[in-house]
Amino acid sequence: MLSQPILQTTDSGLYCAAGDFYVDPRRPVDRAVTSHAHTDHARWGCRRYLAAAPSEHLLRMRMNENAEFQFLPYGETITIGGVKISFHPAGHMLGSAQIRLEHQGQVAVVTGDYKLETDPTCQTWQPVKCHLLVTESTFGLPVYRWSPPETIAADINQWWKESRDQDKCCVLYGYAVGKSQRLIASLDPSIGPIYCHGAVQKGNDAYRRSGVQLPETIYVGDIAGKHDWRGAMVVAVPSAHGSPWMKKFGRVSTAMASGWMAVRGARRRRSVDRGFILSDHVDWPSLMTAVEACAPQTTWVTHGYSAVVARYLNEQGRDAIAIDNRSRGEDEEDTTAEIPEATS
Amino acid sequence: MIRFAELYHALDSTTKTNDKIAAMKDYFTDASPADAAWAVHFLSGKKLKQPVPRKLLRRWAADEAGIPSWLFDESYHAVGDLAEAMSLVVPQGESTDDRSLTSWIEDRLMPLREMNEDHQRQAVIDLWRQTPALTRLVVMKLITGGFRVGVSKRLVTRSVALASGIAPEVVAHRLMGNWEPTAEFFLRLTDPDAQDTIVSQPYPFCLAHPLDPDAGPKPLGDIDQYVAEWKWDGIRGQVIRRSGQTFIWSRGEDLMENRWPEIEAASELLPDGTVLDGEILACLPDGEVLSFGELQRRIGRKTVGKKLLTEVPVVFHAFDLLEHGGRDVRELPFSQRREQLQNLLCDITHPNLRITELIPATKWQDWQEIRQTSRERNSEGLMLKRKDAVYDVGRVRGTWWKWKVAPYTIDAVLIYAQKGHGKRASLFTDYTFALWDGEALVPFAKAYSGLDDAEIRKVDHYVRRNTKEKFGPVRSVTPTLVMELAFEGLQKSKRHKSGIATRFPRILRWRHDKNPKDANSLDELLELLPE
Ligand SMILES: [Zn+2]
Ligand SMILES: [Zn+2]
């Protein structure tokens, strides 16, 4: 065990007493150190935010503009109350970071959400050695094993081609910010035009302002009157599925891209035509690889199958505990928290 | 095998009937007769005899994945299906064994049964290492017997008919009864010139449709076009007398051998080339029909002892004639079939083989009134049949109607919930309900159906937020939700904590307007018990 942990768990989330700040707080606090721009991590209503530089446009888009922001490039260090803070790529989405804290020779790393696969829209995860690792576990069960992203991208483009040849319009669902841009970046624009739901298009703009190259996309709302949607790809938020907004596209083939699609029951419950298993979180093998690479003395597990992962790590001879008793994997498997804007 | 796995995938990923039929038709067109026979076998709901115990499969899957068994079980619970859990947890295989479906089953899966545990284990592990995920899922479903992919036997029949050009009625008939999934079988199934004379083969059953209880029988038109019979709660069956042998089939297409010796004895009096449709009922010599609960004492017994034979005698209540003098008479109008049936049975006087009673009436009102007395006769209501109708095997509406008496209803409190299976594996869909006994809530019925998807989701949400305790997959929840349950029958039971067993309980509606304390008591349920 660590003598004096840098972090402690509180009702408002992970708290660093030495620096008097919270990491990804659950409630509005004075000072938040933020791993990435998803709403379950970047909590609205804090007074000050500190985050990785590439997340600037996304965070400003989503947070109250009166808040005070500070952005730090990956790898640079800032000291608050004697605690050295730095951000390291988490590979989850643009600007997502693992947060490294160092105080009196002790190092803690909070992963935020992360994945190990490469993603054209953000920097790839790098292991950071630490004494205390706080890891997410959204997909912390051995049933979750991702295929290489190139394979999934090829499947998606193949589906698009086949639907186009049947005169259908493709509607692909992914979370507005992060997943959607990753999807768009892997689409083959030679197949047809790419359209976006309003929330997705806003995310695209923020990505482009941040310097990420994306194929050309057209905001669906900019198309007036009758339009031929055959052969098009529409990227939309999952809440649009089955809504009146969908009617205009005529004959469609629908698909959802999410790690949850690995399980048949979840796939059927979505009632989409196709489920692509594409996640921005670590799968079971990656989670084990990451723990191995970071070589912590203690692991705190949160955000998913915490109890399962902690028990397994303990049996592997590691010191691990689950720091949330809520099982997110079970109770919030739609992760609606990551769908910020309503359907427009 | 990959082709069959693709068929499974195609069927699994669509809810559209036409897409399913098209996928099956393509398969039956391309596949070898032997593969097609096996496909028909599985798609119409038949299974392999469980070749490997599930407990062992779970253990080996954990070993092969290099994880402790508790972790495999956690995964299994999250997935909700053993075959799927195994196919996800065990890492992908390297090489691929793409032998035919038939060879997979006959050379790899069926021999598993004969092996000792060590050999079985090695064979299963080899199988995992030689299958990509999709094939493995299907193979494991064949092994665990959980091959359900949302197609009915009727859809399979239509697909075979489309692929072969044989009329669906003929295919349906040839698919009845016992058959072995062999190339010869499939060739016969799809042979335009084959003679349909297998001595034990039953005909497909004609099914009745429920009459809308609010509208009543008036929309059916002229009463002169109909006859009425009592609808009894027994076992639907077909008695076949051919070549000096008797075969009794249930609607579930089980050949019931040695179960109903008194009916078999009576059937010996039938002339060769006779097939009767009717109901097996528990019935005293004076004609009084006993409850289904009594009949149940004889179900599931392979052989019947003397004591039970005298306590629960059974009678075959014949209500239709399908084959007469060796001729298929299903195309004749009901009135003619009935007449021939009467002529046939009036020569035979046997207490265990009777013709059903037709209830006379001159106006709908007469049947309406006599229907009110159903319960005291242990009957479920009336059956109305059109006099001019042929014996239908498709689900054509309008020839047979069941006009049941209203079900029993009671308001009960939801106290336990459990996750569903298959499609609903991730939702809490199976509920246990309780009634008041003084200050205590006593569980008395389980119900799975009756709510719509949105309601199921709400209950699921409620269960997750209001779990008191977990017992394995079952959760006890704060008793708040009140639902109105309907059921068809009631009987005393020592096996049930409540002392009473309900038949076909289902949820009628969610009573948002009621508090748990407004729910009914056990005493009120007991009052519904027939004398
Ligand atoms: Zn996230
Ligand atoms: Zn998250």
Compose a concise summary of this entry:
The complex is a heterodimer of chains A (344) and B (531). With 344 residues, chain A is an alpha/beta fold. Chain A has helices at residues 56-62, 149-165, 179-186, 198-209, 264-270, 284-294, 306-315, 328-331, and strands at residues 8-10, 13-16, 21-23, 31-34, 48-52, 68-72, 77-80, 83-89, 97-103, 106-110, 132-137, 169-173, 194-196, 218-219, 233-236, 252-257, 274-276, 298-304, 319-322.
For the record, the CATH architecture of the largest domain in chain B stands as 2-Layer Sandwich
- Largest interface: which pair? A-B, 24 and 29 residues
CATH architect. name of the largest domain in chain A: 4-Layer Sandwich
CATH class of the largest domain in chain A: Alpha Beta
Which radius of gyration of chain A do the C-alpha atoms yield?
Answer: 20 Å
Helix content of chain B: 25-40%
Helical fraction of chain A equals 10-25%
Estimate the global geometry of chain B from the Cα principal axes. globular
Main pleated sheet of chain B: 7 strands, antiparallel
Radius of gyration of chain B, whole Å: 26 Å
- Molecular shape of chain A: globular
In total, the number of domains of chain A comes to 2
The share of residues in extended strands of chain B comes to: 15-25%
The CATH topology of the largest domain in chain B = D-amino Acid Aminotransferase, Chain A, domain 1
Pattern of helices and strands of chain A: EEEEEHEEEEEEHEHEHEEEHEHEHEH
Number of beta strands of chain B: 19
Question: Biggest sheet of chain A, in brief?
Answer: 7 strands, mixed
Q: Describe the strand arrangement of the main beta sheet of chain A, using strand numbers.
A: 7-8-9-10-11-18-19
